[in-house]
Specification:
Blueprint lengths: L12 H14 L12 H8 L3 H13 L3 E4 L3 E4 L10 H20 L4 H16 L5
Antiparallel strand pairs: 1-2
Pfam families: GntR
Protein name: GntR family transcriptional regulator
InterPro entries: Tscrpt_reg_HTH_GntR (IPR000524), WH-like_DNA-bd_sf (IPR036388), WH_DNA-bd_sf (IPR036390)
Length: 131
C-alpha cells in the first residue's frame, strides 16, 4: 500500500496517516487480515517520530479498524465486507459527519454540491478508489 503524507500540510501527520489507512480500507486496498507496516518501519520511511506513527495507529485501534499484538504487529481488523458496523460506531460518526456538513454549508455549498460530492466519493470507494 502506498501512503502519501505531506509534512507541509496543516493536517497533523498522525491524522494524515490515519486518514490514508482508512481510505485504503474503504476502497479495498487494505482488506481485513492485511498486515500493516510496523511503527518503526513507517517512521523510518517518512523520517518522522515513532510517536507520530503510533498515534495514528492508536486512532485506528480505537475505531476498531486495526488490531495490534506483539507477535503479528498491526493487522486490519475489518473492512466493508466485515458486516454491519457496531451500533456504537454511529455514536461517534454522526457528530463528525454533522461537522463536515456544517463546514460545507458555512462555506456556501449548495445541497446539490454536497450530495454530488458525497455520491462521487462513495462511488470511488465502492469501485476500488484510485487503485
Amino acid at each position: 500500500m502506498q501512503i502519501d503524507i505531506d509534512p507541509r500540510s496543516d493536517v497533523p501527520l498522525y491524522q494524515q496517516l490515519h486518514d490514508r489507512v482508512v481510505e485504503a480500507i474503504a476502497d479495498g486496498s487494505l482488506p481485513a487480515g492485511t498486515s500493516l507496516a510496523s511503527v518503526r518501519q513507517l517512521a523510518g520511511a517518512f523520517g518522522i517520530n515513532l510517536a507520530t506513527v503510533a498515534k495514528g495507529y492508536d486512532l485506528l485501534r480505537q475505531e476498531g479498524l486495526v488490531t495490534t499484538n506483539r507477535r503479528s504487529g498491526s493487522i486490519v481488523a475489518r473492512d466493508a465486507a466485515s458486516g454491519p458496523a457496531a451500533a456504537s460506531f454511529s455514536d461517534g460518526w454522526v457528530p463528525r459527519l454533522r461537522t463536515l456538513l456544517a463546514e460545507a454549508v458555512a462555506h456556501g455549498m449548495t445541497d446539490h454540491e454536497v450530495t454530488t460530492a458525497v455520491s462521487t466519493e462513495l462511488h470511488r470507494f465502492r469501485s476500488g478508489g484510485d487503485r
